[in-house]
Amino acid sequence: MGDLSSLVHPAGAATWEAPLPSTDLACTTREVAARRSASAESDSRRCVGEVLYVPELWLLAVAEAESEDGAEGMAAGREGAPGIAGRLALDQVRAQVERHRDSVERFRRHPTQVLRAKLQDVLRDAFQQATREVHALGHRHGAVGVSLDAILVLGSEVLVAHGGRGEVVLLREGLVHRLTGRTERAEEPGDAPPARDPTAPPGEEDELDSAASLLGLGPDAPVIQVLAVGLSPGDRLAVLGASVAAGLTTVALRRVQRAGDVDSLADALASAARVPTERPLLVGVVQPGGAEAAVAGEDRLSLLRGVEIFRWCSVDELLAFVGLTRPARFSQGELLLRQGALNTTLYLLVQGRVGVNKDGQRIAETGAGSIFGEMSMLDEPRASATVEALTDIEVLTIDRDAFLQALKRDASMAVKVLWSMLLRVSSNLRTTSQRLAAVTAGEAAGETAGPPVPPPVHGEDA
């Protein structure tokens, strides 16, 4: 299970251009009604659920409701009080997001911290209103509780809202991130109890697993989690109903998470869950960017593996940086960096060639795999050299603030990256000193020497 702190955007996080296709969202849902059995007829509880998917809003939500048997209007099936409660909750989520569609579209075009906070409040308000509606229904027909989970895909990130016993899971490059605050019992041999989420306030996970965490049992909403999570190409998100979430261990998730497309993954999740026959199977899976994004994610991971400053990083640590990368293109003759100018970007050259100039003198030419701007990540953010595109080029960029935030969140990763950068700077200084010594010796001997020209490098400290 991955570290949540590397996924969730902190307050004041840097903004960026969305790298994922804005018109491609692969989504599928699996919704199987409660399958009554003879032995289940004595169960005192009734549970039904429903999945909502609104493609034009990129909104996916799952509601699972339950009520005590004997409540007025109760009957097995959707027309009972639980079915009405689930639809009321989903209607509130859809209505609130629809009401703020303009803010959603603005964020997709130009994400900002202010808009992110506003949309988080929209989801939080939707859950609070759903609680009030379900509670009012309970007054008329008997107590009903709802587990409600929703995701709103916003290009390069997703907003996750959670209340109750359902769950939202992020599947990324072979890793399983259980984003919401549910705890899990070890139900399989060798499956140890998971560590507590360090980002959750004291007692929050226990509260989320209790009956009191269901929406609608009281007039006020219980603990509601609303997260903003950065997305990488190839990421898949699964929204699980409460019954499916309770029946899926992390081990089971790891076994099925490499299922091919979203349809196969949804089927695998539904099949792997240990769900009693009287409870519904509710699963929704989305993949922002579709199948092409998965290939792009693998390509970026491969590129970062070959970068010198990331050479000691694990796959999980590399994925944290993959999520920060943004693609860009420059035409021949354009400048990536200008000596002395402010720079807050790290560049990784994917395709093409660039020239590095220092004080008007060409000191290097290099190609794919080179990095530029790394010194601006640590020192004063001014470029120490000019970098010019010698051909049309493609690069991946990482913003300085996002880079530093990633290092602050993971001390082990920070040591690896900073140590690699220190070795790189040391090597460059040693090479420069040797060449300056050679030039000085030549001048002392009366020889004419030009400026030192280092051999081709894998990037300059620009």
Topology at a glance:
Blueprint: E1 25-32, E2 45-54, E3 59-68, H1 81-99, H2 101-109, H3 113-141, E4 144-153, E5 157-163, E6 167-172, E7 175-178, H4 204-209, E8 225-230, E9 236-240, H5 242-246, H6 250-256, H7 262-272, E10 281-288, H8 290-305, H9 315-322, E11 326-330, E12 335-337, E13 345-351, E14 354-358, E15 361-366, E16 371-372, E17 386-389, E18 393-399, H10 400-409, H11 411-444
Antiparallel strand pairs: 1-10, 2-3, 3-4, 4-5, 5-8, 6-7, 6-9, 9-10, 11-18, 12-17, 13-16, 13-18, 14-15, 14-17
Helix pairs in contact: 1-3, 2-3, 8-9, 10-11
What attributes characterize this protein structure?
single chain, 462 residues, alpha+beta, Phosphatase 2c, domain 1, Jelly Rolls, 2 domains, five-stranded antiparallel β-sheet, 11 helices, 18 strands, 33% helix, elongated, disordered N terminus, disordered C terminus
Briefly, what is this?
The protein is built from eleven helices and 18 strands. The chain is of the alpha+beta class and 462 residues long.
Query: For the record, what is the CATH homologous superfamily label of the largest domain?
Result: PPM-type phosphatase domain
Number of DSSP helical runs: 11
Coarse shape: elongated
Task: Give me the CATH fold name of the largest domain.
Answer: Phosphatase 2c, domain 1
CATH class of the largest domain: Alpha Beta
Broad structural category: alpha+beta
* Main β-sheet description: 5 strands, antiparallel
How far apart the termini lie comes to: 37 Å
Q: From the 3D coordinates, which CATH architecture of the largest domain would you assign?
A: 4-Layer Sandwich
The percentage helix is 25-40%
Radius of gyration: 27 Å
Main sheet strand line-up: 1-10-9-6-7
pLDDT < 50 stretches: 1-24, 33-44, 70-78, 183-212, 290-295, 455-461
How would you state the average pLDDT, rounded? Answer: 75
List SSEs in N-to-C order: EEEHHHEEEEHEEHHHEHHEEEEEEEEHH
Task: Please tally the β strands and state the result.
Answer: 18
- Strand fraction equals 15-25%
Count up the domains: 2
